[in-house]
Amino acid sequence: MKRTPMTARGAEQLRDELKRLKSEDRPRVIKAIAEARSHGDLSENAEYHAAREQQGFIEGRISEIEAKLSSCEIIDPAKVTDTGKVVFGATVELEAEDDGKRVTYAIVGEDEADIRAGRISITSPIARALVGRSEGDVVQVNAPGGSRSYEIVAIRYV
Fold first, then answer.
1. How far is CA 106 from CA 33, 51, 111, 158, in A?
2. Which pLDDT score, from 0 to 100, does residue 1 have?
3. Which tens digit of pLDDT belongs to each residue from 61-97?
4. Where do the domains of the chain lie?
5. What fold does the segment set 4-75 form as a domain?
6. Is 137's pLDDT higher than 90?
7. Measured in Å, how far apart are the chain's first and last C-alpha atoms?
8. How far, in Å, CA of 5 to CA of 110, rounded?
């Protein structure tokens, strides 16, 4: 089985979502289905069909989260050995070669990625270009918006 890297923070967020789905959302939708059933003819009962659809979504998400948590490898960036190289969990400060603009990204698991919060997926084009590189290296990133060059200004493991 392929182990998927995930930070402790990302695993905790998934556990919280799983707990909410099982303890709040699932009971609420079961109650809604029972309520809709009590209204009689199910073939034309929109509330019943909507609740069943919602139940399908919730059960699917619960299965998805449980599978992800069972196959993840939790990596604490603070415990990663400082090799001077960009690895999963590292926070990397970059400077764009064309305009000198600086950006900082933490390299995280797919479920944790949030570009607005500065967290990019390990599978993203930027992260793939950065992994294994060192401070001072210039990387070429082929992203959907076109090709850009960045210099790695700093690497932190926090």
1. 42, 38, 13, 9
2. 61
3. 999 999 999 999 998 877 877 788 999 999 999 999 8
4. 4-75, 77-156
5. Helix Hairpins (1.10.287)
6. yes
7. 28
8. 9
